[in-house]
Specification:
Blueprint (H helix, E strand, L loop, with lengths): L1 E6 L3 E7 L5 E4 L5 E4 L11 E6 L1 H11 L4 E4 L1 E2 L3 H12 L8 E2 L6 E8 L2 E7 L13 E6 L10 H11 L2 E4 L3 H5 L2 H10 L2 E5 H8 L6 H9 L5 E5 L5 E5 L2 E5 L12 H14 L4 H15 L12 H10 L6 E3 L1
Helix pairs in contact: 1-8, 6-7, 8-9, 9-10
Length: 323
């Protein structure tokens, strides 16, 4: 039996480093814009082509943490797909259940890096998703897909009900665009829901900055464990009416792509390994921190042994627990 099957899109990510050709300007409300000259040719230092996308990042992260992992995704029939297949295979992610779309392109993103921040230009190819016959797995991780991804929700729900598989849900942009009512059937079956603060506010259509209000509102929709990440402000979780807060693990930030996926893969792996929620928050915080120290979503990912070693060698991340 597999430990985990991730379901969602995978992309070719092209990283463009803009250090010498761009500036950032911010208004009084701290809304910032990346600016560079229009209508001219600019020289950049270098580019990097890497595998990205939430489903791929989490599958690779979980595999590095010793989970038996597979992925269902839709790829094109092109050279970026070959890079993705090679990367997944290298990290021991089973690719038997993904589908190659003949004469189609693979999803594509351009990441404009400036300092430690980035702006992502993302393109999802139109897809006709067909969920394959999946094997038994302890967990499904459902995440970002294109607009047509909603068409396989009934198939996913049928699989979950017939197998009693646990599901972790980290909705992407198109899934959030569906609105709360259309996501309720999935949310009712969800054991672990992971969102960042802005996604939680958007899903609930609530503007509050109070994370406890957001956590309780999401918990009432069905998920047993709700996690909200808040960037440099740490991560928050709610389960069995108990609230937990974990601060970030401080590192020198190089680039931020994939930090959320690194958190998710480590948090979920800890739960699968029967760790407590406070310990799962620590795993997630450390894994996401180390991804920030490298370019791209994969280079900084940690192994299970490395996470446990770091948590033993350094002062513990203090978890606040409130009822």
């Amino acid at each position: 039996m597999l430990d985990l099957i991730t379901i969602g899109d995978v992309t070719e990510d092209v990283y463009v480093h803009l250090e010498d050709v761009a500036t950032v300007t911010c208004d009084v409300k701290h809304h910032c814009s990346l600016q560079f000259p229009f209508g001219t040719k600019l020289s950049i230092k270098h580019i990097e082509k890497l595998t990205g996308g939430n489903a791929g990042n989490v599958a690779i992260g979980a595999s590095l943490l010793n989970l038996k992992t597979a992925i269902y995704t839709e790829l094109g029939d092109d050279s970026p797909a070959q890079l993705i297949l090679k990367t997944l295979h290298y990290h021991n992610v089973k690719i038997k259940y993904l589908h190659i779309n003949k004469n189609k392109n693979t999803n594509y993103s351009v990441i404009l890096n400036f300092g430690a921040e980035r702006t992502i230009l993302s393109h999802h190819e139109p897809r006709t998703y067909h969920l394959p016959k999946l094997p038994l797995a302890k967990w499904i991780y459902l995440t970002s897909m294109g607009q047509e991804g909603k068409l396989i929700f009934p198939q996913i729900i049928q699989y979950l009900k017939s197998t009693n598989t646990n599901v972790a849900f980290n909705p992407g942009t198109h899934q959030l665009n569906l609105g709360l009512n259309k996501l309720k059937p999935i949310l009712k079956l969800t054991k672990l829901l992971i969102l960042n603060k802005e996604e939680a506010q958007r899903l609930l259509n609530i503007k509050t900055e109070n994370l406890k209000i957001l956590l309780h509102a999401l918990n009432k929709l069905g998920p047993e464990i709700v996690v909200i990440t808040d960037g440099p402000n740490g991560s928050h979780a709610l389960s069995n009416n108990t609230y937990y807060f974990c601060p970030i693990y401080n590192v020198k930030i190089v680039e931020q792509t994939g930090a959320g996926d690194a958190f998710s893969s480590a948090f979920l792996t800890a739960i699968i390994n029967n760790q407590s929620i406070p310990e799962a928050l620590r795993w997630g915080s450390v894994n996401s921190a180390y991804v920030l120290t490298k370019i791209g979503p994969i280079a900084g990912l940690l192994t299970k042994t490395k996470i446990q070693s770091i948590l033993k060698q350094h002062p513990p991340l203090k978890i606040k627990q409130l009822t």
